[in-house]
């Protein structure tokens, strides 16, 4: 049997949908922490790339592209962090 499949009399395996879990569940909290970490890493790397393109390579267009990517990554990271924080508060501050 596949990992994550539920055992039912039905012969077709069913898989859980982790996106459907509430933000307060421990597995969702872990997923949100991972997403925040990846978002922070993406934001920092995009800013670093933008600085390299502006200062060292003197490529204005590519520098602007990476600044936009960094802003989008920061916005998404902030939204996911808000969900993480709200989920923690709903659980009573655990984690």
What are the salient characteristics of this protein?
95 residues; mainly alpha; two-stranded antiparallel ribbon; 2 helices
What is the compact description of this entry?
The protein is about 65% helix and about 5% strand. With about 100 residues, the chain is mostly helical.
Structure description:
The chain has one domain. Helix content is about 65%, strand content about 5%. It is built from 2 helices and 2 strands, in the order ββαα. It has helices spanning about 25-55, 60-90, and strands at about 5, 15.
The outline comes out as: elongated
When the domains are counted, the total is 1
Order of SSEs: EEHH
Number of strands: 2
Oligomeric form: single chain
Largest sheet, strands/sense/barrel: 2 strands, antiparallel
What's the end-to-end separation, in Å?
A: 32 Å
Please give the count of helices.
2
Helix content: 55-70%
Protein topology:
Layout: E1 5-6, E2 14-15, H1 26-56, H2 60-91
Antiparallel strand pairs: 1-2
